[in-house]
């Protein structure tokens, strides 16, 4: 079976759905469930394999691998939109079986199976038996994911935090090296933010930071990692993006921030400008090297007038180049 895809963009098909989408209420099961298991399944061995990890992708991967032995699906898809999960593998086929899963009134996501021939009643019973056996492992994995997401979120702006950049940044770096695809980083800092807090107070400053975060998110892609890493310091990691694309993204953010206006307690409109340093991953560079190069470009942007986008040169000692900079 093809590897799990974390981006669900399957080929267009016109599947035949077997009856209406069932809402399957799972009951956390154990190996001594009254229903006899399919001959091909050892319940204890399955439970041991599916509970070995709290990673949702691994839990779903184990589940669908065993399902393949039971019913031989051509493709599968798992969605949990609240958690931002869209996993899939295989090639969608004509007949489609879809379950909306709940456990103790908790939404557990949606599982879709497809293949070229209809799923028999017996096969559907086997699927539902296995889903019941997997229920507790899936619930625990979703709870762990939710906790991890909270730990990686800045409570003020809702963007990622330093932990998110460290954890997810390492994965993006590994993907860039493994597949030979580009990776870029934007380091940014608001110009004169301290004067906003001094003149209007921290509540207005917080509203301005939230508006800046919204502007950054609106100017980036869903796949980009946006984080607040300090008081008025933000970072955007751009997977599969080269230097020119990163410069364009930086300029979109600069222009979006320049349009911000929040109202103070005295009804004054308070705006913001941002300086941005850009760096792209070079051969042999670590994530720290990428940060350092973008940070040096940011300081260069500040020194040369602020409210501008400048890129690092990419040299080993990491400098900056106004030849590829964009000034406001």
Report on this model:
A hairpin with a 4-residue loop joins β8 (225-228) and β9. Strands 1, 2, 3, 4, 5 and 6 form a 6-stranded mixed beta sheet that branches. The chain is elongated and about 70 Å long. Helices cover 40% and strands 24% of the residues. It has 328 residues and is of the alpha+beta class. The protein has 8 helices and 14 strands.
| H-E order | EEHHEEEEHHEHHEEHEEEHEE
The amount of beta strand, in percent, is 15-25%
For the largest beta-sheet, the strand count, sense and barrel status come to: 6 strands, mixed
Q: What spatial form do the alpha-carbon principal axes imply? A: elongated
Radius of gyration: 25 Å
Q: Whole-Å distance between the termini?
A: 51 Å
What share of residues is helical? Answer: 25-40%
**DSSP strand tally:** 14
Number of helices: 8
Which SSEs are present, and which pair or pack?
Elements: E1 16-17, E2 23-26, H1 43-50, H2 56-71, E3 75-80, E4 85-90, E5 95-103, E6 106-115, H3 121-151, H4 162-179, E7 183-190, H5 193-200, H6 202-218, E8 225-228, E9 233-239, H7 243-258, E10 262-263, E11 269-270, E12 274-280, H8 287-303, E13 308-312, E14 320-327
Parallel strand pairs: 1-5, 2-5, 12-13
Antiparallel strand pairs: 3-4, 3-6, 5-6, 7-9, 7-12, 8-9, 10-11, 13-14
Helix pairs in contact: 2-3, 5-6
Q: Tags for this entry?
A:
328 residues; alpha+beta; 6-stranded mixed sheet; 40% helix; elongated; disordered C terminus
State the gist of this model.
The chain is an alpha+beta fold and 328 residues long.
């Amino acid at each position: 079976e093809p590897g799990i895809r974390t981006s669900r963009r399957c080929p267009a098909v016109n599947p035949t759905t077997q009856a209406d989408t069932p809402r399957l209420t799972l009951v956390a099961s154990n190996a001594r469930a009254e229903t006899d298991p399919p001959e091909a399944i050892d319940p204890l061995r399955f439970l041991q394999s599916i509970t070995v990890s709290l990673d949702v992708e691994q839990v779903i991967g184990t589940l669908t691998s065993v399902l393949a032995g039971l019913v031989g699906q051509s493709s599968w898809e798992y969605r949990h939109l609240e958690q931002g999960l869209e996993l899939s593998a295989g090639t969608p086929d004509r007949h489609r079986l879809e379950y909306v899963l709940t456990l103790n009134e908790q939404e557990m996501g949606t599982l879709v199976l497809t293949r070229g021939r209809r799923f028999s009643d017996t096969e559907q019973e086997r699927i539902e038996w296995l889903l019941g056996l997997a229920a507790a492992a899936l619930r625990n994995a979703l709870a762990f994911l939710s906790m991890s997401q909270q730990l990686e979120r800045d409570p003020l702006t809702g963007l990622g935090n330093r932990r998110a950049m460290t954890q997810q940044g390492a994965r993006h770096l590994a993907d860039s090296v493994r597949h030979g695809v580009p990776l870029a980083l934007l380091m940014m800092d608001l110009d004169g933010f301290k004067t906003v807090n001094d003149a209007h107070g921290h509540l207005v400053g917080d509203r301005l930071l939230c508006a800046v975060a919204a502007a950054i998110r609106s100017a980036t892609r869903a796949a980009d990692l946006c984080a607040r890493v300090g008081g008025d310091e933000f970072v955007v990691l751009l997977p599969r993006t080269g230097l020119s694309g990163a410069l364009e993204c930086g300029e979109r953010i600069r222009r979006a921030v320049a349009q911000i206006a929040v109202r103070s307690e005295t009804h004054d409109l308070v705006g913001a400008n941002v300086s941005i340093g850009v760096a792209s991953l070079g051969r042999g560079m670590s994530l720290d090297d990428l940060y350092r190069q973008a940070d040096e470009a940011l300081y260069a942007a500040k020194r040369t007038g602020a409210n501008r986008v400048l890129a690092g040169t990419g040299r080993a000692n990491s400098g900056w180049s106004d030849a590829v900079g964009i000034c406001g």
